[in-house]
Structures are given as C-alpha cells and as structure tokens.
Amino acid sequence: MEKYGIPQLSTGDMLREAVRNGTEVGLSAKRFMDAGALVPDEVVIGVVRERFNRDDAKRGFILDGYPRTIPQAQALAHITTLDMVLRLTASDQTIVERLSGRRLGEDGTIYHVTNFPPPAGVKVTQRDDDKQDAIVERLAVCKRQTAPLADYYRKSGLLREVTADKPLTVDQILANCIREIETKGA
Ligand code: AMP
Question: Which atom of ligand 1 is nearest to the CA of 134?
C-alpha cells in the first residue's frame, strides 16, 4: 500500500467490520467465519462488487483474501481486471504457528507471540478463527476450495509464486513479493 499508494481490499476485514456493525451481511457471515468455513459465494461477491463502486480503487488495488473459490474468480472477472496473482506458499506447520500465535492490538497492529511480541502493557485479543479447531478447518477448506485457483490463474498467465515459509521474516517475504511485482511482463 505504501509503496504503490493504492488500497488493500481485504474481504476478511470487510466481513469482520460487517459483523462488528451488525449488518445483514455480518449476521449471515459470522457463523461461517467463527467455524473457519468460507462465507457463501453470493454474500462475498456482493461485498466485493459494492467495494469496487468506491473511487479509491480506481488507480489500483491489492485484493487480499479474495477470490477463494472458482465462482468468486469468475465473478471478479466481470467486475475488474487483474495484473497478477501472488500466491504465498508455506508449509502447514508454518501456517499453524503463524495463525495460532497471531494477536491483535487495539490500534489494529498485528502481533505474534514469538515473532513480534506485543510490548508489555499492550492489550491484545485473539481472533476466534485463529484458535486450533478453526485453523484446522481453514486449512482443509483452503486445500479443497481455494487451491484449484492456482491452476485457474496459471492458465491465464497471471500466477506468481512467492516463497513465504520459515525462516523468512515479514520484511523478507514483502521483498520477495515486490520483486515479483517489479518483474511483471519481464
Ligand atoms: P481472512 O481475514 O482473509 O483470513 O478471512 C477470515 C474469514 O472471513 C475466512 O475464514 C472466511 O470465513 C471469511 N472470508 C474472507 N474472505 C472470504 C472469501 N473470499 N470467501 C469466503 N469467505 C471469506
């Protein structure tokens, strides 16, 4: 976001905000999110379509956490075009460690109990879906419903794979992402 001056559009953030605000979307999404399941396609597609009506995405955007199914990708193709798709790869073990250790500060800072511990006195919370049972379900859902998107975007020539496993740090993974973005069209 800082480097390119464009917004990050995260469907997870949009859905969590809808839950906090108690909107119709939030009410229908909450139980799926808490269980680590995907929110139904028609709900998420509606949220994304609405988000693209706002002006701030006209100069570009980083779409985060969407699409997660083939129907979502097909719907997206009617809403906008993509320059590339970044797929960050890491082992299941690394993913479980990162999710289960994630903590949220009140100001929105994302900490990790060992990789980026919150300073003493900072109050943190844990997402319900970062607890063990939900994480196991999220990984299974990812393999079943989201993994097929790799082939889908590989066929259209948009897919870029970025190594994001241990022991790489957030800064190193970001550098890998930027390298991929900058080699666009090379
Ligand atoms: P995230 O913050 O991206 O990890 O998303 C948190 C949760 O929100 C997911 O586990 C899903 O329940 C829901 N969610 C976010 N994005 C999507 C999406 N594209 N399709 C379906 N559900 C989603």
Answer: 10
Which residue has the CA at smallest separation from atom 6 of ligand 1? 12
Round to whole Å and give the CA distance between 5 and 31.
34
Q: Which of 10, 14, 33 to mutate to test the pocket of ligand 1 (most atoms within 8 A of CB)?
A: 33
Does the beta carbon of 44 sit less than 6 angstroms from any atom of ligand 1? yes
Q: pTM surpassing 0.90?
A: yes
CA 85 to chain CA centroid, Å, is: 12
- At 88 the three-state DSSP class reads strand
Model confidence pLDDT, tens digit, residues 105-117 = 999 999 999 999 9
Task: Kindly list the structural domains of the chain, giving each domain's residue range(s) and its CATH number in brackets, ordered by start.
Answer: 1-83 (3.40.50.300), 90-155 (no CATH)
Alpha helix stretches (DSSP H) within the chain? 11-21, 24-35, 41-51, 70-79, 92-100, 132-141, 148-155, 170-182
